[in-house]
Write a structure and sequence with these properties.
By secondary structure, the protein is an alpha/beta fold. The chain starts with 15 loop residues before the first strand and ends in a 30-residue tail after the last helix. The protein folds into two domains: 219 residues, Class I glutamine amidotransferase (GATase) domain (Rossmann fold, 3-Layer(aba) Sandwich); 181 residues. The protein is built from ten helices and 21 strands.
Amino acid sequence: PMILQVYPPADRAKPRNLSQWAIYDPVGKSSAAFARLGYALPPVNSVATLPASTHTLVIGCGALDNAAAADTALAGLAERIRSGLRVWVLEQTAETMNARFGLRAFTPGVRQVWVRQGEHPFLRGISNDDLADWRGQTTLGPLDGPPASLDENQRPKRTWRCSQFGVVASTIVEMPHVAAFSPIVDTGFDLRYSALWEVQEGAGRMVFCLLDVSDRAGKDPVVDTLLHNIIADLDQPKQAGAATVQLVASSADAPLSALPVNSAVPALAAAGPRHVLVLPRGSAAWLEQHGKALAEYLTRGGRAVAVGLTLAEGQALSAAVNNAFSVSRETHWLNPLRGAVPAPFAGVSPAAIRWRLKLECSVVSAVPSNGWRNDSGVLATIPVGKGLIVWLAATPADFDAKQRPDLVFSRVKTERLIGSVLANLGVQAGRSWAAALEKPAGDDSKREGDCYSDTRRLRDDPYATMRW
């Protein structure tokens, strides 16, 4: 039997000139794609000629391949982004994503990606079934034929790709461990890759879409829906700015180690609505001294992120908020994650908390009726007044790769989890994406170490060099 999916005819957008948009598209492929959907975007050759009224800049498919030309054209872009400009980066090659952003990118030509933020406006009306086996073929990614000899070692010295049909994303990137990153879809081995994500930079917003949309616009109904959704969302009024962050005790764990330490209570008392308080393991003394100030902060609408607290620290935090939740010490490792998750955990997959170690940790065993916890309690949200406590039971230090090398996978997943939660709360931890986009591709700010905390080995992903 064969399953046939039928889509109703999509309404073609009325011809519309997006006058507050602009597109840098030296290749021209993305401009043609938007035109097929009825959108006209004013072209620009450089940021210097970008009108002050522009609120969204599209970086077209392959626009960054000529690094020297892109460096010149995008000079001054980072400051515009931090001041509120939205930037939408479309498909780029793996080499470009690595050279400019330091991302581990490769071109397997995946035919299935998975919804990770089901409530995200980009994915309105789109399900997992829609993100597979897209119509026709793409022109992205090389097709270099089979090896000259079957005796040639194809892995890892040489890999080849035999088809571009049905491909959803030619190029995918390994999600960073230690940089702000909010994945909207994920894919690949261990769900560690993405082809659609967003980050916030200052008052601005950056969207990266490596899904193969430029070739499919006007030809595949799912691609049309996706592009209409993204345009509608980016065309909305200006979003909230970046959050301020206060780490109350030092932490050697990435990405917390990149945050400034500030244990002063006056900073808490004067905190605005976009403030985030981070309580790492080792916050016992601070919690003991400032429990009352913490409770007042949360009641007013403050947000606190608890990372890897001990049982005593968790109980002190609960006591500060009138025992609004319960904490216990338990051993877990599989940690199911079912159904919809609260906003602070948007983009978090079940793989993020599937540990390779049976870990004894402090978990939230009970929450109020308007709270949330996963089945094991290693993730939780606890409303307090107008504020919120976000609970993460593990910290990267719990997974010591020196004792067992395979624990590096659980360590980097935990780093990525912390970074995603902070990003969802508006905190920019780690590298600047805007600076990486603007500066020359050879600049030191694009080191792979700005994104990842481990050293890549072939065994880490058994499918990384396979093609279909």
